[in-house]
Design goal:
GO biological process, one term: response to oxidative stress
Domain MsrB: 25-149
Strand content: 25-35%
Keywords: Metal-binding, Oxidoreductase, Zinc
Strand order of the largest sheet: 3-4-8-7-6-5
Structural class: mainly beta
Number of domains: 1
Protein name: peptide-methionine (R)-S-oxide reductase
Radius of gyration: 14 Å
Order of helices and strands: HHEEEEEEEEE
CATH class: Mainly Beta
Shape: globular
Cofactor: Zn(2+)
CATH topology: Metal Binding Protein, Guanine Nucleotide Exchange Factor, Chain A
């Protein structure tokens, strides 16, 4: 489905809410390792099937590695076999920002942390997964931390 018609609604840089966690690149570099910085702050993608949470089935809450904001819950995680952790919905509708991404010669929908605007991955709709939303939030493991259920 073309990003311009994505049913979840998207923002542009001009209409996005300001981040509540705002740091300089230098501050992010001090906090994040090289791979985390490349993915979270420069929109890189980790190699498929290499991330810490690809096959994790631990119950808990997935948070933004950069700022700690709650993003996803384990009860929305599913096995998509795509090489990255997949979720069918964020924990709250306003936990993420959806932005059109026209890089790499295709149109996709980028997913960012609403709190700090860090790149998380992309969302795809209508791929035929048996989920309540028919969405696949394809998220880089390196952009997440998992807080296991107590």
């Amino acid at each position: 489905m073309a990003a311009a018609t994505y049913r979840g609604g998207m923002t542009s840089h001009a209409t996005e809410p300001a981040p509540t966690v705002d740091k300089t690149d230098e501050q992010w570099r001090q906090q994040l390792n090289d791979e985390e910085f490349a993915v979270l702050r420069q929109a890189a993608t980790e190699r498929p099937f290499t991330g810490e949470y690809v096959d994790t089935e631990t119950e808990g809450v997935y948070q933004c590695r950069a700022c700690g904001a709650e993003l996803f819950r384990s009860d929305t995680k599913f096995g998509s076999h795509c090489g990255w952790p997949s979720f069918y919905a964020p924990s709250e509708s306003d936990a993420v920002i959806l932005r059109e991404d026209s890089t790499l010669g295709m149109t996709r929908v980028e997913v960012l942390c609403r709190a700090c605007h860090s790149h998380l991955g992309h969302v795809f709709h209508g791929e035929g997964y048996a989920t309540p939303t028919d969405d696949r939030y394809c998220i880089n493991s390196v952009s997440l931390t998992l807080e296991p259920k107590a």
